[in-house]
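Q: For a teaching handout, I want to show students what a protein-ligand complex looks like in token form. Below are the inputs, and the small molecule is magnesium ion. Please produce the holo structure.
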Amino acid sequence: DSEQSASDGARLRGRLSPSVSGTRSPGESLVELRAGHGKDSRMSSTVDVAALAGILDAARRERREVPPLSHAHPTLTVPDGYAVQAEGIRLREAQGERVVGLKMGFTSEAKRQQMNLGSPIFGVLTDRMRVQPGGVVSVGAGIHPRIEPEIAFRTSKELKGTVTRDEVLDACDAVFAAMEVLDSRFVGFKYFSLPDVVADNASSSLFVPGTLERAPRELDLTKLQMRMEVNGKVEGEARSDAISGDPVVSLIQLCALLAQRGQVLPKGSLVLSGAATAAYLMKPGDHVRLTVDGLGTVEVTAGE
Ligand code: OOG
Ligand code: MG
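A: Here is the structure, written as tokens, with magnesium ion included.
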């Protein structure tokens, strides 16, 4: 993996896009997000990006597990993974979905250990992935859904490239508790490489945003106790600094990852900063409740 990341870095540094330094209106920045993904797919020469995205999209729609892509494509790189991810999002947009934000993954030690993978990645969130707080998540509508506790942000300004903590705070008008429902398209929720999970949109499936929104500067975002209970039993507990040492740092990392691809974090994006604890495998009937200091509770019920 580290070898792969190093070569990705070299490839990406060579093509840092001028679009990162340009100015544009918020409307254009969403277009830029797609244009950036497009560049990724064109530069991928060794894999059939469209075919791989098609395999994962069909697996998702048909609730079917598929082998990790790296089995048939052992040389798959992280940029290949992002190209497949972007193509998968294009397929979903073609099915009428709209991009509403981004999610970070592997920003906590608990998550890195659970999946045995080492570096932060991002995925894309669409409007159809949103679940109303207090709503029902159908286990059978997924493959093997897991749920995890997160801190989420909403941007009110575009963020691009290297940004400071203060710049992130200035650009976010809300912080709220959220749960993410993951659902790997890979057999047994197992994959052994970052390119696989990146291609699979970072295992994203659904997200449940909390309703209590606070201004990010009103709280010490590194000291929020987070507790995820299932049927009244604590399944995961951590302080918010389990997420990148500070969930704001996840957004700094996200901006850096996007900049490597010539992309920005658009105004109006919802951002999941990554789970603070390991994810929990949902069973029909489970009642899941996340409580975060200062950010209230978010609940969801697992249906058949
Ligand atoms: C990848 C997604 C990780 C997080 O919050 O760390 C993630 C996975 O666990 O399969 O969403
Ligand atoms: Mg997550």
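A: Two things your students might notice: Residues 78 and 194 are 6 Å apart (CA to CA). Residues 26-43 form the longest helix (18 residues).
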